[in-house]
Amino acid sequence: KDGNSIGAQTNYHIIGIEPGAGIMAQANKAIKDYQLNDWQLAEGSSAAMATELKKAYDHKKPIIVTGWAPHWMFTTYDLKFLKDPNKSFGEVEDIHTIVRKGLKQDAPGAYTILDQFIWKPDDMEKVMVDIKDRMDPSVAADKWIKANGDKVAQWTKGADGGNGEKINLVYVAWDTEIASTNVIAKVLEQNGYDVKLSQVEVGPMFAGVANGSVDGMVAAWLPSTHNKYYKQYKNDLVDLGTNLHGTKNGLVVPKYMDIDSIEDLK
Ligand code: PBE
């Protein structure tokens, strides 16, 4: 192997995130689809991946990470997605809101707000950037809500206010979901609900909503990323549809790297 090749410089490691994430299954599929036999996908966490990326970027070293958009990393660094002609990472997707059966009867106002929740990648990225700059997530959520009263009014339109009913939302500690979950939680609180947030792994997130032990989540990436979980639980879930259109998953590298496609890693 060429000692200067990207593989040699990165020790043939792709920096991954939590093992259960859909993007990890997609990255393993990419390793097969593109026959990257020398390469390994390193498991870790979203936070550790971001730390590795910063370290490499600050020293202009090569690095390959599993990355997704929207994400603050694209507003903070000059990065690019590697082309994925085999579509191992699927295509542009939507994030869905999913609630438990019976929520509509038990808390109709909260159900309506969750059902009407929809925003754009740019909105989400604003909240993500504030959180990455160390603003408390609930403060960042509140700031975005105050600046976007028109959008929030569309979500709460026609919704009955709550009387302190408890609403339990689950999420995974991905930067995207920390942002969205905090925003919708704050809107529900401002409309009379007592909201509790629980951070879980992706499997338990779907399972909890399906078995009714929690009320809902705004974190289902479909049709591809979370397909495995969605298929398993779909008969026991209420899918309220898209809350954000235009996500993307893939392998992400700094723009200073001389590589454009996943095929180039072979
Ligand atoms: N992500 C962010 C998740 C969905 C949200 C792309 C890291 C995943 O791969 O499961």
From TrEMBL:
Keyword line: Cell membrane, Membrane, Transmembrane, Transmembrane helix, Transport
Electron transport among keywords: no
Subcellular location: Cell membrane; Membrane
Family of this protein: In the N-terminal section; belongs to the binding-protein-dependent transport system permease family.
Name the UniProt record assigns to this protein: ABC transmembrane type-1 domain-containing protein
Organism: Neobacillus rhizosphaerae
